Amino acid sequence: MAKLILSMDGLVLKELPLAKERTTIGRKPHNDIQIDNLAISGEHAVIVTILNDSFLEDLNSTNGTYVNGQPIKKHFLQNNDVVELGKYRLKYINDTPAQAPAPDFEKTMVLRPDMMRKPPAEAPTAPPVVPMRSATETQAGFRAGASVPAGTSMGGGMPPPAPVAPPQPAAPAAAPNQIGAIQILNGANAGRELELTKTLTTLGKPGLQVAVITRRPQGYFITHVEGANFPVVNGSQLDAQAHPLSDHDVIEIAGVKMEFFIKR
After folding, report:
1. CA 102 – CA 201 distance, rounded (Å)
2. Which residues pair with 227 in a beta bridge?
3. How far apart are CA 109 and CA 254, in angstroms?
4. Could you say which of 38, 164, 175, 198 would form a disulfide bridge with 101 (CB–CB 3.0 to 4.6 Å)?
5. Spatial distance between the Cα atoms of 252 and 231, rounded to a whole number of angstroms
6. Cα 125 to the chain's mean position, in Å?
7. Could you tell me the pLDDT band of residue 85, with boundaries at 50, 70 and 90?
8. Measuring CA to CA, which residue among 99, 96, 69 is closest to residue 81?
């Protein structure tokens, strides 16, 4: 488990394990790490820990947050980094190798074009449209009974739909051999799809709102990382804790709506 070693003027004061997903640092008593010093803001900084990775964010503190002598707003912590808060030092200790996708935290955007699988290209003379996925993919990407855009062909010779079966208990969010994905529902990237194959996938707009989706043995989870507003799932705003994702959940981050689904 990652930990912080708090010191001042070279004297070690205490060791602080990063046992929570969200660890706040500041002068006020409600912080997880309270440093009662006037150089420290009431709510100075926060560390978000997901699996073996930790992200440090300055909360617009008066005197700023420094790592290894450099001022930061957001920083992906690495073993032996030294966080400087006034006269205090927090040395980050984590001997577990960092996950490969974690550095993307610094340059995350909402579904960067190079991350998304583009739909098949249309003929040069055709107007620019977002083609629908194949029938097999559509079964995973849309709810039963969802409306179909006008003018969309459903194919000829199909038999009448069978009677709707009674609802079945929801399956687990993901099995070891299943891969989750998200599809953008609005905006310029509507229709684009991103497979969630990495352990960590960050989504959002730096400086506005950032969240991370983690793939765990128990399924997929979404966690707030940055911004005053928390992600919204199925119309309900989340809190600071990790939230499990279920098939066909609708997520809203930084004004962009996307649907999470399990690829069958």
Report:
1. 8
2. none
3. 10
4. 198
5. 6
6. 38
7. very high
8. 69
- pLDDT tens digits for 229-249? 889 999 999 888 889 999 999
Classified as helix, coil or strand, 66 is strand
Quote the DSSP letter at residue 255.
Answer: T
Q: What global pTM score does this model have?
A: 0.46
H helix intervals, 97-213: 135-141
What CA–CA distance (Å, rounded) separates 232 from 250?
Answer: 8
Q: Which two tokens stand for residue 228?
A: 């005053």
Torsion, Cα 86 209 263 151, to 10 degrees, reads -170
Strand partners, 223: 212
What is the residue whose two structure tokens read 């062909």?
153
Nearest to 191 by CA among 92, 144, 257: 257
| pLDDT interval class at 158 (50, 70, 90) | low
DSSP 104: G
Q: What are phi and psi of 139, to 5 degrees?
A: -60, -30
Residues 69/49, Cβ–Cβ less than 8 Å:
no
What does the pLDDT average to over 101-114? Answer: 42
Residues, the chain: 264
Tokens of 52: 């073996």
